[in-house]
Every structure is written in C-alpha cells, then in structure tokens.
Amino acid sequence: MSEPRAATIKDVATAAGVSIATVSKFVNRQQTFSPAVEERIRAAIASLGYRQNPAARSMVTGRTQAIGLAVMDIRNPHYANIVKGANRVGMKSGYSQFVVDMEERREGVHQMLDALAMRVDGLIVSTRIPEQDMDWLANMGKPVIFVGRPMRDVIYTVRTDGYLGAGLLARYLVRQGYRRIAYAGFPLASWNEERLRGLKEVVEAEGLELQVFEVDGTVTESGERAAAHVLLRPDRPEVIVACNDQVALGFLIQARALGISIPEDVGLAGFDNIEPSRYVLPSLTTVDMRSETMGEIAMQQILAMIAGKEIARDYRLEPTLMIRQSTMRPPAGG
Amino acid sequence: MSEPRAATIKDVATAAGVSIATVSKFVNRQQTFSPAVEERIRAAIASLGYRQNPAARSMVTGRTQAIGLAVMDIRNPHYANIVKGANRVGMKSGYSQFVVDMEERREGVHQMLDALAMRVDGLIVSTRIPEQDMDWLANMGKPVIFVGRPMRDVIYTVRTDGYLGAGLLARYLVRQGYRRIAYAGFPLASWNEERLRGLKEVVEAEGLELQVFEVDGTVTESGERAAAHVLLRPDRPEVIVACNDQVALGFLIQARALGISIPEDVGLAGFDNIEPSRYVLPSLTTVDMRSETMGEIAMQQILAMIAGKEIARDYRLEPTLMIRQSTMRPPAGG
DNA sequence: GTGAAAGCGCTAACAG
DNA sequence: CTGTTAGCGCTTTCAC
C-alpha cells in the first residue's frame, strides 16, 4: 500500500551492482556506458521506481531548477497570462515554478521574496516593490527580472512599452475627434506614470488638456467606485482612458447603472487587452500589452541569465492598439 | 556588490561563538537560551544576513514546505481562483506553492506530476488524470487532494457538488417555464457527467427531454464554435445550459453574431460564476461553484494531512444559484 | 542550556 | 568506462 521508503541512488547502485557515481552519471546523462551496465541500471531504476531527490541534488549543485514568480493578483487575467507564458517555457526546460500571489500586499514583500529566493535559481517579479528593497533585490546574487515595470538601470526588465501604447491610443482618440480626454489612473502602480505621460504628451500637443482622475485599485470594483464621480460631473470627459482593462470594465458596468451610454455619451478605453474586453458590450478599445509574451520572454531571459549568457537590460515589446466599439464616436452633430 | 557566498549556519555559529546545533535550535525556535547566547546569535544572523537553506533542511527532515498545485488552465478564472485561495492559506502556514499549468495536456501528465511530487509535501490536483495514473497518485506516499472532481474512494477530494448545482439550476429553469432545455457538455471533463445527470433527472422528472450537445473544450472559443449548430437548428432549445461559464460566454458571443437575442430568443446559463459572468450583457445566470473556497479548503486539508490529522475523504461544498438576466424569460405569449 | 557527531541523497573531482 | 571519496548545509540524537 504505502511504500516503505523511497528508493535512493544507493539502492539503485546496489541493485544494479555498480557504484552510486555510475548511477549518478547515468541519471544525468553525463557519459556513455557499457551496454551491460546501462541495461542493469535502467532495470534497477525501473523496478525500484527511483527518482532523483531534488533537494539532495541542489545541495551539491547549488541549483534548484525552480523559478520564483511573484504577481500582484493572479485573478487579473493580465497576470494569469504572464504566469501561463512563463510556465510554458520554463516547463520545456525542466524548470518548475513557484508562484506567489501578493494580493496587493504592501508590507512583508521583502520577507516573502526573501524566503522564496533561497528556493529558486531566479526570480520573475511583477509586483510592487518598496523602493528600499530594490537594491537588495538587485544584489541578492540571483537573476531577477521585472516584468511590466519601467525601471532604469539597477535591474533587468521585460516590458511592453506603456508610453508608446498610451501614445498610440491618444493619437487614435484625437483622430476620432475626442477633445475632452480623461485618464483614470492608479498612482501606486509603477506603470501608471508612463501611461499618463504618454497620453498627456499627445493630448497637450494638440492644445488640449488631459483631465486626470484617480482610482483606488486595479480591479473592476475600483472602476465601479470611481465611475460616478467622473461620469456625473458637469464637465464630463468625452472619453475616459482607464489605467487597465479591469478598471475600464468597472466604468462600463457603472455607466450602465447610471444610464450613460458608451460610446454614445462617453468613450472608454483601457490597457492590457484581457479576454473579457473583447466580448463585453460595447467591446472595449484597449492597448494590448502582450501579457503572455512578456511571461514567455521573462522566463527565457531568466534562463539565459542562469546559463550565464548576457541579456538585454531592458527588453521592450511593442504594444498594439485594439480598436473596438467603446470608442466608436457617433458622427458629431456640430 | 555581489556577496561572495551566502552565510551558512556554520558562519553564524562561528560569529556567535556557539555550536551549529545551538544556532539550529534557535532558528527553529526549539527551546530557550541564555540571554547572552540568544543575543549573540541574533546579532550574528542579522549581520551576516543568514537564511536557512531549504534544500539542506529538507534533506534531513524529509519535508519541503512546498505544495504542488496542478491546474488545467490558469487563464480560466475558475482555476485562477483556486490558486488564489490555496495560495492564501498556504502562505499563512509558511508553505510555498509550485503551480503547474497543464494546458489541457493529455499526455505526459504522469511524468510532470512525478517530477513535482519529489519537490513537495503534498499535491493539489485539478487536472484531468488518465485513469491508469490514479492508483499511482493515490499510493505515492504523499497527501494528494483532488479539487472540483467527483471521485468515489481511492483519493481525497474537495469539491462543490455539481449534481446539486445542476439540480438547482434545472429546477429554476423549469419554474421559469422553459420546456426545451439543452446541455452543452464537454465529455472529457470529469465533472461533466454529474452536471449532466443533475440536469437530466430534474428535466425528465418533469416529463421533458434534455437535448445534449457537445463542445470541444472549456474555453470561450469552444462555445463559439459549437453555438451555430445549436442555435440555428429548427428545434432550437429554449434554454441552453453550458458546461461552464466560459463556454456559455462563447455561446453568448456567437448568438450576438447570429442576431439571436438572449434571453428573448433563447435562455443561457453556465457553471462556475467567474467574474465576467456578472458584467456581460445580458449578465449570465450560473451556478457558483465556489472556486476560491475550494482552493482554500483544499490547502487546509492538505496541510492537515501533512500534520497527520484525519480528514474527510470527500469534502463537499454547496453550490449557489446565481440568477441573472440571461434566463429572464419574457412573459410567454401563448 | 549547549555541543559533538552522524548522517540526509547526491554530485564532482580524481584515480584507476 | 567505473569506483572512491569528500563534502553541500542542516537537523537530530545523545552526551555533558
């Protein structure tokens, strides 16, 4: 029923009548063997159901064959996609993946990553990190890659350019004839500033002014809570750019509740291109931030670093504008 | 810049002028110490930045302080919620979490879990498992819990009762006056049978017949692909129950494209209660399968098993019916 | 309350 | 091609 004890390399060696060193080399495919030996080892392993003990292995090699992946909120499809992408490429190379959902936690992050760090060969971080922990992270002696987060120097990053994305979106909105453009941002997010800046530059270059509002988080409920304040004011914007799709979706939900039509009464757009954006009504114009690809690249890069290769400090992906119904401005009656 | 070498317990012992055994006991809070020693150890640890090496620790204890969590598709909010719940309770107890996204993979599952098994103290599995791997899983000597999957005996499970949920939903639909009721199922899913059975029993008890269709997967696209076949037939059902919300959403999307109104022309319902179901138009009637709670409970149970406690073989949660617009039948004109 | 010593299972020289 | 051996960093008796 329950096995007495898992077979060790020693058991295999004994059963095969060879030394443990030979078994080790066999298991790690480090050389060739005489057919006889090879066969005996193979048989012994099979009959004993032997598996390498990763802990023992990593004790001597110093490598764990695991990567740590910290995200803000696995429930946000944006992060789920990052995990998915990373998982796919990691798995191909035989790496397992620790995932940690930080749940918007602001404290204890250091401690958490600290604990993780000892268990992995590298870290992919897509979380808010207190400024003071940055140096520590950068110098902890293991590869670290930030994803989706703009940072100069200090650290390696993989990201889709939010400044560029915001520019694409803003230029499109202006072309659509929108004049009163607003941004609903979440200042605590590290990517907030560049999205804001990208919008602002384009909008102001047109001689327009960007109205800026704040939301209290990055989930749909954050958008729902902020919506009334933005939608019911006398100088209501003609189009609202939310800092991400979830927030935009929150605005959408609340607009319906308030009897405000999108895009007839007000336009709406977001960032990320999560799946629901495609099928909500009206479908949501957004900037595809290539979440899954970021995850894939981040993992590739971290594996490259582990392999001792030199990689780009700042791997940048190009965002794509997804034009949908929520910004289909009705022909202006003026 | 980069530290020469991570501090070991030996370094701490030397620095504090005590033995490594003492440091070990201190770190693991296994007894009390003379104030002097305690202080010296504390100082040494702090100044050296010492952290326990988990690999070394687990070599001797045989425990890894990690749990493996295998899901079908992390992009499906249902699974993301399970991960989230599990992660939350695991973290509180100091357990890290390996997450594996199986991506609907049908082969290599054994191998994958095999590799995982050596790295964890327990496994939470929410994936399709080939029948022949069941015994192996059940007897691999480590706690295993299946989530969301009906199974008698053999193995521990945490699940929300799909049979019950289907019953709730079916009774409600009948009460709504629906007569031609259909189920769009995915036969490969382990939970498919009980959802189907739950519907069928109620429907047939009413003297009605359940139409059954098949979809080719559990994502929105699966629903989209299957929709036309179901929606355009002469004997179109009055209401369609999809095997999960994603598939239902696919039907919804495709119905729009075909110019078929929900709920006016045909009703629609799903299972899971993922977030988008609440805000699509029309909002989707569904059975809340309590994904996040399942994740929490599964982790609690696995930790209990690891602690040597006896737990329920089959932990069952009650589903809740979420009545929304997609089944708001217009007053029948007949 | 503290320390010495025996491994945990494995890899990596190094010898043969 | 195969084997011997010295640890990797830590916990755990068992003495003192």
Note down, in words, how this protein is organized.
The structure is a homodimer of 334-residue chains. With 334 residues, the first copy, chain A, is α/β, with parallel strands linked by helices. The first copy, chain A, folds into 3 domains: 9-61, 434 Repressor (Amino-terminal Domain); 66-160 and 291-318, Rossmann fold (3-Layer(aba) Sandwich); 162-288 and 321-327, Response regulator (Rossmann fold), CATH 3.40.50. The first copy, chain A, contains 13 helices and 12 strands. In chain A, β9 (267-272), α12 (276-279) and β10 form a beta-alpha-beta unit. Chain B binds a DNA duplex (16 and 16 nucleotides) through residues 8-10, 18-22, 24-25, 27-28, 30-34, 37, 52-53, 55-62.
* Tally of alpha and pi helices of chain A: 13
Largest interface: A-B, 52 and 52 residues
**Category from helices, strands and their pairing of chain A:** alpha/beta
Question: Distance between the terminal alpha carbons of chain A, to the nearest Å?
Answer: 81 Å
Percent strand of chain A equals 15-25%
Question: What summary fits the major beta sheet of chain A?
Answer: 6 strands, parallel
Rg of chain A to the nearest angstrom?
A: 26 Å
Series of H and E elements of chain A: HHHHEHEHEHEEHEHEHEHEHEHEE
For the record, the count of structural domains of chain A works out to 3
The CATH class of the largest domain in chain A is identified as Alpha Beta
CATH architecture of the largest domain in chain A: 3-Layer(aba) Sandwich
Low-confidence segments of chain A, given as residue ranges, are none
Strand order across the largest sheet of chain A:
2-1-3-4-5-11
Average pLDDT level of chain A: 93
Domain HTH lacI-type (chains A, B): 7-61
Keywords (chains A, B): DNA-binding, Transcription, Transcription regulation
Protein name (chains A, B): LacI family transcriptional regulator
Organism (chains A, B): Martelella radicis
